[in-house]
């Protein structure tokens, strides 16, 4: 995520939870940068006129003025709870971080009584999980297609062989709960599907990849039928 995108996302994050504060450390972990970087970003936003202020104390942090928030949305408590259920079912989807942010914005922008009713309903829904820590997709991967940059990855294949590659992210494919990053692999000089939970390490470069198209025919899946996402 480049700085311009991060500044916008930082304001959206604060707006989603306003008037509650977010600490610099929490924001640094959220955006995978240093605390000092967050402090510089907040200072830049304040100088640009964004109504961010610091709330002191052990539970303090940065807040955005209520005047900078969204008007109430007419979502029902059941609709909000349904979105929360869908979010919990996303597993290691690369879109999960964005979905979490969207849900927080939605609940905050609801009318007060509806938002509380949604929280009360959500508290009655539970998920039975195995005692295994759920893997979270690094934000560098979840941002890979929306903000194209060449990535350097360490990848472990099905046999456990580890290789280092430079890839140009192009899209995603989901199959039976597993997500794949579709990318042009410079090591193999061709299109490859990288199962996200087998990407062992990732670093973003400053290089913008050349434009490439990606169609269902390019992906060349020999089993199943590809269904495009529609809005």
UniProtKB/TrEMBL annotation:
It comes from the Bacteria. Residues 139-204 form the WYL domain. It holds the Pfam family HTH_11. Signal peptide: none annotated. PROSITE patterns: WYL (PS52050). Residues 6-62 form the Helix-turn-helix type domain. This is Transcriptional regulator. It comes from Cnuibacter physcomitrellae.
């Amino acid at each position: 995520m480049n700085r311009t995108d991060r500044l916008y996302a930082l304001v959206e994050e604060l707006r989603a939870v306003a008037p509650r504060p977010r600490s610099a450390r929490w924001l640094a972990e959220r955006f995978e940068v240093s605390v000092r970087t967050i402090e510089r970003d907040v200072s830049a936003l304040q100088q640009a006129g964004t109504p961010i202020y610091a709330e002191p104390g052990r539970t303090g942090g940065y807040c955005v003025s209520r005047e900078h928030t969204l008007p109430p949305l007419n979502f029902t408590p059941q609709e909000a709870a349904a979105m929360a259920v869908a979010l919990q079912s996303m597993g290691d989807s690369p879109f999960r971080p964005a979905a979490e942010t969207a849900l927080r914005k939605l609940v905050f922008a609801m009318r007060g009584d509806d938002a509380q009713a949604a929280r009360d309903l959500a508290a009655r829904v539970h998920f039975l999980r195995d005692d295994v820590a759920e893997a979270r997709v690094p934000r560098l991967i979840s941002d890979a297609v929306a903000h194209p940059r060449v990535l350097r990855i360490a990848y472990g294949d099905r046999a456990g062989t580890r290789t280092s590659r430079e890839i140009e992210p192009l899209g995603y494919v989901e199959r039976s709960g597993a997500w794949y990053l579709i990318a042009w692999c410079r090591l193999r000089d061709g299109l490859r599907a990288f199962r996200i939970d087998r990407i062992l390490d990732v670093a973003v470069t400053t290089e913008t990849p050349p434009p490439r198209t990606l169609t269902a025919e390019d992906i060349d899946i020999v089993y199943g039928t590809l269904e495009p996402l529609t809005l």
